[in-house]
Design goal:
The complex is a heterodimer.
Chain A: H1 5-22, H2 25-33, H3 40-48, H4 68-81, H5 87-101, H6 104-116, E1 121-124, E2 132-137, E3 140-151, E4 158-165, E5 168-175, E6 181-185, E7 195-208, H7 214-250, E8 252-253, E9 256-257, H8 262-290, H9 296-322, H10 333-346, H11 350-362
Parallel strand pairs in A: 1-4
Antiparallel strand pairs in A: 2-3, 3-7, 4-5, 5-7, 6-7, 8-9
Helix pairs in contact in A: 1-4, 4-7, 5-6, 5-7, 7-8, 7-9, 7-10, 8-9, 9-10, 9-11
Chain B: H1 5-18, H2 32-47, H3 66-76, H4 87-100, H5 103-114, E1 120-123, E2 139-143, E3 146-154, E4 164-170, E5 181-187, E6 193-198, E7 207-217, E8 222-223, H6 229-246, H7 250-256, H8 259-269, H9 276-304, H10 312-335, H11 345-362, H12 367-378
Parallel strand pairs in B: 1-4
Antiparallel strand pairs in B: 2-3, 3-7, 4-5, 5-8, 6-7
Classes of the chains: A alpha+beta, B alpha+beta.
């Protein structure tokens, strides 16, 4: 699916307008500082007023069935504003896993709730070897194990968990109020994106998709997660570049705006060079999702390895351009620095993505 | 009835298919044989009515649209087009004459340039005026109706095979540096013009030093107005950027031409493909190369859609230079001590890349100058305080070092 420039521009303007008025920095900090890190009223507006949670949900389930190109525009703005809401976990990962599973029943059961904003979903065990095990008993599936670092896992209504079982890895749905489920919010480096440890002890679960299909779903979901995250990274990097440039224009030392010194100017130019490359890399990865391109795994890793390093470099340079004020708690620079490092490692490090790239390319999938 | 774009593209395809023998050759070669090949190709193209697609018809062009140029580029994609030695003339000098040249200059030169009958070069840089071209010292002094030129130019690509050059010279040292310059057309075979090849660290000699000793130019050699040479030079340099951009980031493609594939092949043959550190580096080269292709594609899309390309042109130039350097370093690391074996084709290929990399980064604007442009024109950061503004050129210190 292609998105015309006008449609993308309109979407960007409306999301930017909403986030600027509804979630300014003070509000970002208020939500991030709250016990749950979640604001129900804001979530309701994102879902209802803007219809964003239904963006990639098919029309028959109450969504607008847009593509990743449009989703990317929204994610970029959310990364720009550091929106503290479980959007990525619910829409990119949750709805993404359900759509990839091909399980019509599960889609009918959960996608309408995602689109309407009534259901928030978290996904555990997508990367690495699953740490949960599912066993089929007389009264259905039961899961044991602990999923670490589940994005927005403490506030989700539904958990989708990759677990090993007979026949290989499979995807399961677990209700947040299921017996034997406990959740421990984690202290996170990234203050605007929560994570939780989710423990399951003989917790009843529903199989999603076919038994043994989990590895395929997880791999395809990871490609989409990487692509989606690069859009957030582009937004964040643009914001820190704006911040640094604005400061360099208006901060005077030695009788001159510090941006007139080439030492500062060139750091800003380096950020611009990286942002320009991040933009084309992310756009290519998002387009590969929409085209279901065979080289999506490559495009996603090209974008993710580059954007991970470049965003973090930009966030670090922003603090340096700001000097002393840049490393105070009150200045927003550290919020982006935290997000950039967290994002760089969240779904695998750039080095891991590069190694995976080599393996893909050796197999002739470039 | 006008020809459709598709029909035009098909006509170009057919022409190339019938003239395969005129294509081929290394785009970077500046030997006299390469110039001969370029002239033959261009003459055939001109005679077939396919040269100067977007040029005005009155100067031998076809008066077509940019879309035609892009269709042409598409059809030409599978072929090595040997016109590199003509690009400075066609991409920079000719547009300058079109914009600021006199009617007589246009009538006399443009069609001949377009057919490859005249080859041109550009004489701006000097030993004392590199990044700061406006600080040049070559003097042009009035002698009745004529001008007499004395001085030295450097980094002049193709001077040794050019018929004419666009010369930027100082005509008034009593005013600030940008105000005292004038552009001239110079016959490269005029008495007093001496051309000496400049050997680069690669061993090749694509550039020249050009010396002017009492070279007489007629009054009608002035391009544009006396004292407005800087504006004319900016026109030339802007066209350099546009021609790179419209060429579809040809720069990127040329520099990036399969560095990853070459490295992966080298590493495989040399048994280095299992080394985890080298794998990281080779993968990084792949990423840089892919990003450069994407940037070039973005530039093409912008041009096609009639949008002014953003900073991608400068970014592509920097990224291309960085890629070339990185790939060469990785290549040498794979080779290890075999890198200086004198009978090894791999060693030859990668040491040539390594030695070419610094020139790639500097030619056409150093990374520092490119970053100043990005910082000032795109990000809106203030310029350095200028100590050379409002100072008569004769009172200004320029050059120095050991030039």
């Amino acid at each position: 699916m292609t998105v015309t420039t006008t449609v993308a521009d309109d979407l960007r303007a409306s999301v930017r307008g909403f986030l600027e008025s509804a979630v300014p920095e003070a509000e970002v900090r208020r939500i991030a500082d709250s016990p749950s890190g979640f604001d129900a009223a804001l979530w309701g507006r994102l879902a209802g007023e803007l219809g964003l949670t239904g963006l990639v949900v098919p029309e028959e389930h109450g969504g607008s069935r847009a593509g990743f190109a449009e989703l990317g525009v929204v994610l970029e703005e959310m990364g720009w504003a550091l929106l503290p809401a479980p959007f990525f976990s619910t829409v990119v990962l949750g709805a993404g896993a359900l759509l990839l599973s091909g399980d019509a029943g599960a889609q009918a059961a959960h996608l309408p709730g995602i689109a309407s904003g009534e259901l928030r979903v978290a996904v555990g065990g997508m990367t690495g070897t699953p740490t949960c095990e599912a066993v089929a008993g007389s009264r259905g599936w039961l899961i044991d194990g602990t999923a670490e670092g589940v994005l927005d896992g403490a506030t989700a209504d539904l958990l989708l968990v990759f677990a090993t079982c007979e026949g290989g890895t499979s995807l399961f749905a677990v209700r947040a109020d299921a017996p034997g489920l406990s959740r421990r919010p984690l202290r996170t480096l990234d203050l605007t994106r929560r994570q939780a440890q989710v423990s399951l002890h003989a917790t009843p679960a529903t199989l999603i998709g076919s038994q043994g299909d989990g590895e395929r779903i997880a791999a395809a979901l990871l490609d989409r997660a990487l692509a989606g995250q690069t859009a957030e990274q582009v937004g964040g990097a643009k914001r820190v570049l704006e911040m640094a440039t604005e400061y360099a224009r208006t901060r005077y030392q030695f009788g001159r705006a510090i941006g007139s010194f080439q030492a500062i100017k060139h750091r800003c130019a380096d950020m611009l060079i990286d942002v320009s490359r991040m933009e084309v890399a992310a756009a290519a990865a998002l387009a590969a999702v929409d085209a279901d391109a065979p080289d999506l795994p490559v495009a996603a890793r090209v974008a993710s390895s580059f954007c991970g390093d470049a965003y973090f470099a930009a966030a670090a340079a922003n603090i340096e351009v700001h000097g002393g004020i840049g490393f105070t708690w009150e200045h927003p620079a550290h919020l982006y620095y935290r997000r950039a490092k967290s994002a760089q490692l969240l779904f695998g490090s750039p080095a891991e993505h590069r190694e995976a790239l080599m393996t893909l390319l050796e197999a002739g999938r470039g | 009835m006008t020809e459709s774009l598709d029909a035009f593209r098909e006509r170009v395809r057919e022409w190339f298919a019938q003239h395969v023998e005129l294509t081929g050759g290394d785009g970077g070669d500046r030997s006299l044989e390469a110039v001969g090949a370029a002239r033959r190709f261009q003459a055939a193209l001109f005679d077939a009515g396919l040269a100067g697609l977007t040029w005005p018809v009155e100067y031998g062009g076809q008066g077509l649209t940019l879309a035609h140029q892009l269709a042409f580029n598409e059809a030409a994609e599978p072929y090595a087009v040997p016109t590199m030695p003509l690009l400075i003339g066609l991409g920079m000098c000719a547009p300058t004459l079109l914009e600021v040249g006199s009617q007589e200059q246009r009538d006399r030169h443009l069609a001949r340039m377009l057919r490859g009958d005249e080859v041109w070069c550009q004489l701006f840089s000097e030993p004392g005026a590199g990044s700061d071209v406006a600080g040049l010292r070559t003097r042009a002094v009035r002698d009745g109706e004529d001008w007499v030129v004395n001085g030295q130019k450097v980094w002049t690509s193709g001077a040794h095979f050019s018929d004419y050059g666009l010369l930027l010279a100082r005509t008034d040292p009593a005013v600030p540096k940008h105000l005292g310059l004038t552009m001239f057309v110079v016959d490269m075979r005029a008495p007093g013009v001496t051309i000496r090849p400049l050997r680069q660290i690669t061993g090749g000699a694509n550039f020249n030093e050009v010396f002017f000793d009492d070279v007489h130019l007629p009054g009608d050699a002035v391009v544009g107005e006396v004292g407005r040479g800087w504006q004319a030079a900016v026109t030339t340099l802007m066209n350099e950027r546009v021609s790179i951009g419209a060429g579809g980031g040809g720069l990127g493609r040329r520099l990036g031409g399969g560095e990853f594939a070459a490295l992966a092949d080298l590493a495989r043959r040399r048994g280095a493909l299992a080394d985890p550190v080298l794998r990281q580096e080779i993968a990084s080269v792949f990423v840089e190369e892919r990003l450069l292709e994407l940037l070039s594609a973005r530039i093409r899309e912008d041009v096609k859609a009639g949008r002014t390309p953003g900073p991608q042109g400068s970014v592509a130039k920097l990224a291309g230079a960085q890629l070339a350097k990185h790939a060469a370093e990785v290549g040498l690391e794979v080779l290890g001590s075999a890198a200086w074996a004198d009978d090894d084709a791999d060693a030859e290929r990668w040491t040539t890349s390594l030695l070419g990399a610094p020139g790639n980064a500097i030619a056409g604007g150093t990374p520092e100058i490119m970053k100043n442009i990005l910082g000032e024109r795109v990000l809106g950061l203030p310029r350095e305080p200028a100590v050379d503004r409002d100072v008569p050129f004769k009172d200004l210190r320029v050059g120095g070092g050991r030039s």
